[in-house]
């Protein structure tokens, strides 16, 4: 569990919503927003990439987000 009592799965879902909303995906952004460690943030980014939510690592730039936020 993280500092705020969320499981890693819950952190993943929060991170997924965050990157889709902000159209910005980076380890640092996830770390700061969720207040989690580097390794957990890396695992979340890697899973987002495996599931087709974000693109591959591109140097020092944020990853491309493939899913657009739906407007209701």
SSE diagram, text form:
Blueprint: H1 8-22, H2 27-34, H3 38-50
Helix pairs in contact: 1-3, 2-3
Describe this entry's structure for a reader.
With 72 residues, the protein is an all-alpha fold. It has a domain at 8-50: Arc Repressor Mutant, subunit A. Helices cover 50% and strands 0% of the residues. It has helices at residues 8-22, 27-34, 38-50. Helix 1 packs across helix 3 (38-50) and helix 2 (27-34) crosses helix 3 (38-50). The longest helix is centred in the N-terminal third of the chain and has 15 residues, at 8-22. The termini are far apart. 19% of the residues are buried. The model has no long low-confidence stretch (mean pLDDT 91).
Low-confidence stretches: none
Structural class: mainly alpha
- Terminal CA distance reads 33 Å
Beta-strand fraction estimate: under 5%
CATH topology of the domain at 8-50: Arc Repressor Mutant, subunit A
Biggest sheet character = none
CATH superfamily of the domain at 8-50: Winged helix-like DNA-binding domain superfamily/Winged helix DNA-binding domain
Helix content: 40-55%
Per DSSP, the total helix count is: 3
Strand runs, count: 0
Report the principal-axis shape.
globular
Mean pLDDT: 91
Topology pattern, helix = H, strand = E: HHH
Radius of gyration: 12 Å
Any descriptors?
50% helix, mainly alpha, Arc Repressor Mutant, subunit A, 72 residues
């Amino acid at each position: 569990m993280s500092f705020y009592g969320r499981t890693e799965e819950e952190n993943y879902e929060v991170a997924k919503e965050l990157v889709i909303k902000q159209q910005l995906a980076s380890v640092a952004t996830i770390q700061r927003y969720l207040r989690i460690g580097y390794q957990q943030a890396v695992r979340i980014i890697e899973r987002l990439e495996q599931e087709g939510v974000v693109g591959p690592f591109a140097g020092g730039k944020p990853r491309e987000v493939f899913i657009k936020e739906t407007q209701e």
